[in-house]
Amino acid sequence: MTYFDNRTQLTPYDLRFTPIRLFRPLALALLSILVVLAGCDKRAKDEGDVRPVRSVVVEPGMGSDSTTVTGEIRARYETDLGFRVEGKIVERAVDVGTEVKAGDVLARLDRQPWEQNLESAKADVTAAEANLVQLKAAEGRQATLLKDGYTTRANYDAALAALKNAESQADSAHARLSRARDNLGYTDLKADTDGVITAVNANVGQVVSAGQAVVHLAQPSEREAVFNVSEADLNEAPKDPSAVEVPVVLLADPKIEVVGHVRFISPQADPATRTYEVRVAVPNAPPQMRLGAAVSGSARLNKPGIVVLPGSALFQKDGKPAVWVVDPNALTVSLKPVSVSSYSPNQIMLSGGLDKGDIVVTAGVQKLIPGQKVRLLESKSG
To answer: What's the DSSP call for residue 306?
Structure first.
């Protein structure tokens, strides 16, 4: 016989069920603890599924969108220079990039033909003056004879008419002589103003016609940024484009930027590109913005119904743009496809897909799933 202690005597039957009696309360206690812990874990899990997000409330209206185009720096005043007479080029003193002063000779034509024209004009003047002297003396004699009654009025009138004709021929000969001198001087192509040669269109030995462009002269003292803008962008420009500030950025060094204003918009589209030339005055252009330098210009355009959102709000669904929209009643999120008008470094401009009052998630969009519950940290109009 076995004893549990000195006072109680247990039978073998009692010893068989003693562990169950001893551990049943302990098992029940442990089970209760596990149930409580499971409930806490479930509540923690449910609370973890509610993701805090930042958002904006959509209010579309007359917004503004930015457009950026690429152009180049050009001089405000540019001139195609050519000879005023035809001839063969025998000398060209400049090349692209040559800086010139007013009066500098840029190119020369063969002078021989024009020197011959000058000598011929001089000979015509001499002949006309000799004829004039002769007819002037004849008119004087006829006038004396008519006074004394030894000739008729008809003879005198003929002598006077011949004199007038000789005077007109002499005047014409002098005019041709003056023109011949000018033409000889036109064989030298000179710069009208200070500037720089930006293009050369003819070489030594080439025969050019009067007025044909030989060199292109630009005045770099006043520079402009020239852009080709589409008709759609022009239609959305403000009524007074000259009041629009256009940041002009040097593509070779984006840190170099200057703010300009629209000076001129071409009234007619280019027949090849169907774009309009827009010139932006940049009076304070830095030296790095040399003639021909590539630049970009940005401007704000009025566009109805544009919604501006932070760039962090954009999500891709099947390769197409979308945003997460919050159901204000259930506080769950769903994806909504949108149409993007344009992008900027920190913002996106949407032209469609959202309605007024939509609550759009602007942060943490990559961690959301459809139907997920969220908690709005803040909500502001966008």
So the answer is: E
Kindly report the number of other CB atoms within 10 A of residue 256's CB atom.
Answer: 17
Residue 207's pLDDT is what?
Answer: 95
**pLDDT score of 139 more than 60:** yes
For 141-165, the pLDDT digits (tens) are 999 999 988 889 999 999 999 999 9
Distances (CA, A) of 310 to 68, 135, 299: 19, 96, 19
The pLDDT tens digits for 100-117 are 999 999 999 999 999 999
DSSP letters, 249-303, are EETT-TT-EEEEEEEEE-SS--TTT--EEEEEE-TT--TTS-TT-EEEEEEEEEE
Indicate the number of domains in the chain. 4
Single-letter code of the amino acid located at 2: T
Same domain membership, residue 134 and residue 176: yes
CATH of the domain at 241: 2.40.30.170
Quickly count: other Cβ atoms within 10 Å of residue 175's Cβ. Answer: 12
Q: Which residues contact 35 (CB under 8 A, 6 or more apart)?
A: none
Q: Is the pLDDT of residue 62 over 50?
A: no
* pTM of the predicted protein model: 0.57
- Indicate if the pLDDT at residue 377 is higher than 90: no
CATH classification of the domain holding 171: 1.10.287.470
Domain boundary among 282, 303, 324: 303
Q: Which structural domain range is residue 232 located in?
A: 69-73+221-303
pLDDT of residue 376: 82
* Cβ(302)–Cβ(240) below 8 Å: no
